[in-house]
Amino acid sequence: MNDILFLKKEKVLANRTIYIEIKGRILKSIDTLTKYFEGERLAETCKKGCPNYGMKWSCPPFAVPFSNLAKRYTYAFLLIFSTEMKYYEDIKNKYLAVKAANVTLKSTIEKSTRDLEIVTKGYTLLSGSCRLCKPCYCKMGKPCKHPDRMRYSMEATGLNVQRLSLDFLEHELLWYKDKTLPRYTSAVTLVLYNEDFTIENMVRLLEESMKR
Ligand code: SF4
Predict the structure, then answer these.
(1) Helix crossing, 199-211 with 94-120: angle to 10°?
(2) 176-201 per-position pLDDT tens digit
(3) Which residue from 22, 181, 187, 209 lies 20 to 30 Å from 111 (Cα-Cα)?
(4) CA distance 151 to 125
(5) How far is the CA of 129 from the centre of ligand 1 (A)?
(6) What is the reported pLDDT for 211?
(7) How far apart are the C-alpha atoms of 126 and 149, rounded to whole Å?
(8) Residue with CA nearest ligand 1 atom 5
């Protein structure tokens, strides 16, 4: 087996059953990610187009650049969860359908990624901005309430997630655009760590995490 994993898991929700496709890849040298660091360009994009800019401790301009985090770790594990939008076709408002799918994907991948973080004694970058408090204490001018649990998104640290997903897992990220439903939607995370885990280890850890 090479350093890539592919799993398909059923997830039973209160109002539907969906299948989640899971792709993962071990990157044996974290240095291979440095060419995907586009910190200044992505921070500028956030500044122009995202209401969370400067409003969440997990977002630019407060997020730590990936180049700084990478110095402390040797390996990285790239993880993508995706699900087809056909499971949500009963939701007539297409934007809400994508939102519902993303909420499920993000919470599911976050749980598994945090589990991997514990076992690998690593550090995770999650999908989307931190959602631990509502609102983020940053908005109230207060320090982060859970600095030990707060994690940045990959984008917030300056990584180009689309390029990374395509290059390492041949997975294109699709978005809701012009009122058109994408065929599928995805969530992407990264675990940084120092111990040399095999892909079989990662499969077993993910399987266990998804059963809990
Ligand atoms: S833990 Fe709370 S205060 Fe800290 S970044 Fe997350 S939402 Fe904001």
Answers:
(1) 120
(2) 988 889 999 999 999 999 999 999 99
(3) 181
(4) 6
(5) 9
(6) 86
(7) 11
(8) 57
